[in-house]
Request: fold
Amino acid sequence: MAFQEAVMAFQEAVVAMNPVGIALTLVGALVGLLGSTLSFVEVLALRFLVVGGIAYCVKERRAIVLQPISEHTNKSKSKSKSKSEDPEAECEKKEHEQGGLIKHCHHTVDEENDCPVTPVLDAIRNRRSVFPKQYIDREIPSAVVQSMLDAAAWAPYHGPRPPWRFVVLGKQAMVEMQQLTLKFYDKNWAQTGWANGKKGTAEEYLRWREMTEQEITGRWGPCSYMIANVMRRQAGSKRLPEWEEAAATACAVHNMHIQACSFPGVACYWSSWHDAARDSAEMASFLGLEDKEDKVLGFLVIAAYAPDLLTDKDRRVRGRSHTMAEWRV
Reply:
């Protein structure tokens, strides 16, 4: 085998990432050496090419193995459109441990719509509200709340600074906030009503007040945290439309809720709270609102629950008809 022919054969094998072809080229070159007039320099060059080519193939094959799952799935789809391909086989279970809580995530398949469910969509589907009657007396680690706040930071917003601000209330702070709520209604129930606008006699108000005060240690007692969701009307130097700031803050809260539901046993729901007290100057002072136009968009309630003891069935239905989308071309 001439030196030029050996190099050409070797290059073809490298392009095809075929180690067998490289090996055969090497054997052919060695056999050719027995009756060839290759110079010493040509022999050395051929040896360097072969060693480098094998190393290149090993590196490229390893890179393919380490590619993300989505790239493997996309390549397999481009080769075959067969429905027999199982997206579940293309992904491995990932174990996440944070704050002592473990969650196994994996791809699933939407049989109704015949499409793979990505980890992001899977996480969105797993988000649900779990209400106080399901709470158990167990502390949620602060690391879980911090991960929720980290998720909130990636919500979209306009301007140089995000419009949201979160106030994390622990056990004592939650009690103080609820006592503030009761004191507000003690002063204003005749004008504002109670229980989100209900009005009536003093006797009716006192019955509601007694029930609400018992909830501090009863209904809300097992809660580990309440996060006040504050929309800052003007976070940066530029004043943007209020709906954009409210929408951005809502996206951040949604991110937190999704993240909370990624931890098994973490209950979460977004409470609008008692509206008149929530929107009061007293609440604004308690939460440290910086501007009179800032608004409290409710509280995100965080507690523990036992998933195997959950009595509320998930009755949510989300089909393609729920997207309410109109496609135009």
Q: What stands out?
A: DSSP finds eleven helices and nine strands in the chain.
